[in-house]
Specification:
- The chain has helices spanning 4-12, 15-23, 39-51, 61-66, 86-102, 134-138, 140-151, 165-177; strands spanning 31-34, 57-60, 77-81, 105-110, 120-123.
- The chain has 185 residues and is an alpha/beta fold.
- The protein folds into two domains: 4-154, Rossmann fold (3-Layer(aba) Sandwich), CATH 3.40.50.10490; 159-185, no CATH class.
């Protein structure tokens, strides 16, 4: 746990995240995938894309092979959050298929350099328990979404990137803040 703040600083300062995001700005889909404790980070990647009104997708690695794989297209980035262990092992089977057969762009986030074909690799220099890897691995998705939004000319400091912001904020007032259902919880 004590090493995590330093790891996060290293991840935040890694320009490769920005480069990969900008290189994928025109992709029709951005897909985030992981398993175990980091599956939440795949969901987080999808949700950060939504915050800028951009399409994002997430699937647990095994479910990806049975579902989202079939909508993965040429040059779509598939961001695998794969710390060393089972997630990286499963990614090693999927990534070459995506790269060579579909011509997608598998991007591997890992603490171990892949020894298999992929689009690229971003090192996440965290070597502790998988449970604690959630924090340092979770930093990448919001940075990735931020740079895509910024490159698309969206306002990265505003809800939905500034796209139709007012009606969504007003609508959320009624669907969230004025909900009678929440009173019963």
């Amino acid at each position: 746990m004590e090493t995590i703040p330093n790891v996060i600083k290293q991840v935040i300062s890694n320009n490769k995240i920005k480069e990969q995001a900008i290189n994928s700005v025109d992709a029709s889909r951005h897909i985030f995938s992981s398993s175990g404790p980091n599956y939440g980070n795949a969901l987080f990647g999808e949700f950060k894309m939504y915050e800028f009104s951009l399409p994002g997708y997430s699937k647990e690695i095994e479910e990806y092979c049975h579902t989202t794989y079939f909508i993965t297209e040429v040059e779509n980035p598939v961001i695998f959050i794969a710390p060393e262990g089972e997630a990286l092992e499963r990614t090693s089977e999927i990534s070459p298929v995506l790269k060579n057969m579909i011509k997608a762009n598998p991007l591997i986030l890992s603490n171990k350099e892949p020894d298999f074909e992929c689009g690229d690799w971003i090192e996440i220099p965290y070597y502790g328990s998988e449970e604690n890897s959630v924090v340092p691995f979770g930093v990448v998705s919001p940075i990735f979404a931020y740079w895509i939004a910024k490159e698309k000319g969206l306002n990265v400091n505003t809800f939905r990137g500034g796209v139709d912001q007012e009606k969504y904020v007003e609508g959320s007032y009624y669907t969230i803040r004025k909900s009678k259902v929440k009173e019963n919880y």
